Amino acid sequence: MTDIDTLPRPTLSADETERLHRVTARPAVQTLLGLLNDEKDRTLIVGGAVRNALLDDPVADIDLATTLTPDAVMERASHAGIKVVPTGLDHGTLTLVHGGHGFEVTTLRKDIETDGRRATIAYSRSFREDAERRDFTMNALYADAQAMLYDPVAGLEDLRRKDLRFIGDAQTRIREDYLRILRFFRFFANYAAGDINDTGLAACIALKDGLTGLSRERIGHEWLKLLMARRACETIALMQDKGLTETLVPV
What we know:
Elements: H1 14-24, H2 27-35, E1 43-46, H3 48-55, E2 63-66, H4 70-79, E3 83-88, E4 93-98, E5 101-107, E6 109-114, E7 119-123, H5 127-132, E8 142-143, E9 149-150, H6 155-161, H7 170-176, H8 180-191, H9 198-206, H10 216-227, H11 232-241
Parallel strand pairs: 2-5
Antiparallel strand pairs: 1-2, 1-8, 3-4, 4-5, 6-7, 8-9
């Protein structure tokens, strides 16, 4: 059993439904969701693809979250003649290559232990648990093959307001992975409107020293993404004003 039937399913506008349907109706997506869903196990589109579809932004990568274990995903895909690439087995992630595109499929997870850089995880059958370990509410939206939206952490309203908000307690989310400080500013630069979320900003300032424990590679990768964001200049100026660039060493 899963908890999918207990998740909030907010009503979308006609435009939002049409935008989301353009993603869920893609032939390769329909094939994979048909393959990985049955009476016992459920698989949904999650994260950036859902967020961008609702915003009418381009959707490139499509990630799937599933109650199936990686072994079960591999077995079903192989039986269907779909190429499987074990891209992140330590995190429960496989990439299925179908229709000329790669789709990351990750088993639902919950955190057992975190140290600010990486997490020890356990598999879960709860979409709510999976959502609560993610970073921002707008990144914890799920959709099924019929373009039904599932919203465990009230991310849709934040997305509509373009308010970038951490899930639950902001400092707790950051302590799980200090890279989320940079992600907070990158996502603000790309997807938010108006002023930055005060609670999230205060948490980033309070925990900025945690960035010193991250590898230069991780910081550099995230920093380059920020530099390409829509509101990069004003966002970096804000970071400088708050003393958040002093600990960064871009690669």
